[in-house]
Amino acid sequence: MNVETTATRRHTRITLYQMGIVALCVTLNALEGYDIFVIGYVLPRLPDDFATSADKGYLVSAALVGIGIGSFFLSRLADVVGRRPTLLAALAVNTVGLIGSYLAPNYSTLLASRFIVGLAVGVIAILAVVVSQEHLPTSLRSLGVGVVMFGYPLGGLLAGIADTTIVDQWRTLFAVAATLSVVALVATAVGIPATIPFLRRSADPMRSKRAALLAQRIHVNDASPAPGAESVPHAPRLLAPDVRTTTLLLCLAYPFATATYYFIGTLDAATHHGCNA
User: Which part of the chain is the Major facilitator superfamily (MFS) profile domain (predicted)?
Assistant: First the structure.
């Protein structure tokens, strides 16, 4: 009984180091929430000759299209080159896109930069969840997903606060986002290590040693890899007969849920400015 209790505690214990990684993942999701919802606060501030009403609709859609492409196609790179390098690259691209939005001299440039931001957000939003899972005990991974996803609406809240308190014109909203993205890039480079499965894939003995030390540090049971872990060799196919219906229903439902989420967020920003006009 004592042995079982000790083992259970070992696999449910979370260290300050793990809390720091989860907190950083929450921050990354909050950053992406800010980057997406900020456009709702930018649109009412744009000059009349910068974009028509139809053009503004495309500005909202550009980032959403980028998210779809980034999450579906580009996030797969994390399984090839590793979570950490892919996450750092996505943050760098996100920063470039936000700087482009800040400097945009015309509608076309702003549209392109918003698409670039969407590509990066699609990758970061997925990897923030996966990275947090891979650094948590099995029993806490579902809770970790919920905690990390809380960052997204938190980012929308921060965009609203920025709009009402610390900015004087629309470009400043993007300047704040770009600054936060640079800080997140540095924090990720310092605070998020390469994942254990990725380190173990290498034949380099030093990487194997790093993997062993990290596994000991975060108390991760090697027999229970996180969902989507890089080293899982026999993960079920998403369209296998036993999961095909569930997969297709989720693929059908999620876009509608996401569209509703973004529509409400953008509408709230527009309503806020309409009431203050």
Answer: 21-277
CATH number at residue 128: 1.20.1250.20
What is the pLDDT at residue 189?
95
pLDDT band per the 50, 70, 90 thresholds, residue 232 = very low
> 109 is written with which tokens?
């440039």
Q: Dihedral, CA atoms, 129, 181, 153, 246, nearest 10 degrees? A: -30
261 closest CA partner among 253, 251, 272, 273: 253
Region 244-271 average pLDDT: 70
User: What's the average model confidence in pLDDT over 131-141?
Assistant: 84
Contact status, residue 84 vs residue 193, Cβ threshold 8 Å: yes
CA-nearest of 97, 144, 151 to 119 is 97
Q: What is the pTM of this model?
A: 0.80
Instruction: Pick the closest to residue 151 from 33, 35, 21, 254 (CA basis).
Output: 33
Give the chain's domain count.
Answer: 1
What residue numbers bound the domain in which 64 lies?
2-276
Which residues does 136 contact at the CB level (< 8 Å), separation at least 6? 14, 18, 22, 144, 218, 220, 226
Give the helix ranges, DSSP H, for 104-137.
Answer: 107-134
